[in-house]
Amino acid sequence: MKIAPIINPDARKDTPKALRVDLRKAFSVGTIIWLVLSILTAIFTFLNICGLFTALICFTGFLVGIALLIWEHFDRWDYRRLGK
């Protein structure tokens, strides 16, 4: 292990540029899963199989997924606008 990069910052290698990934796919899959679970737990709550708290957790996960998709839309829009 070389100690020079720790002591002397000029001896360090340049950091690679961060990859720009498409988070819409991951957020969409997660949101769809939360939606399906919300529907299932709503049915189970209606049938008294599980409690209301479980259904609320799943619905909250769905709402967070929607919020993340909206955030990604505007973040990507800014990225495209600044890239030109």
Mean pLDDT: 86
H/E element order: HHH
Fraction of helical residues: over 70%
Number of domains: 1
Q: How many beta-strand elements?
A: 0
Judged by helices, strands and strand pairing, the structural class is: mainly alpha
Helix count, DSSP H or I runs of 4 or more residues: 3
Overall form? elongated
Largest sheet: none
N- to C-terminal distance: 42 Å
Strand content: under 5%
Taking pLDDT < 50 over at least 5 consecutive residues as the criterion, the unreliable ranges are: none
Rg estimate, integer Å: 22 Å
Keywords: Membrane, Transmembrane, Transmembrane helix
Transmembrane segments: 26-46, 52-71
Protein name: DUF2530 domain-containing protein
Briefly summarize what is shown.
By secondary structure, this protein is mainly alpha-helical. It has helices at 4-7, 23-46, 52-83.
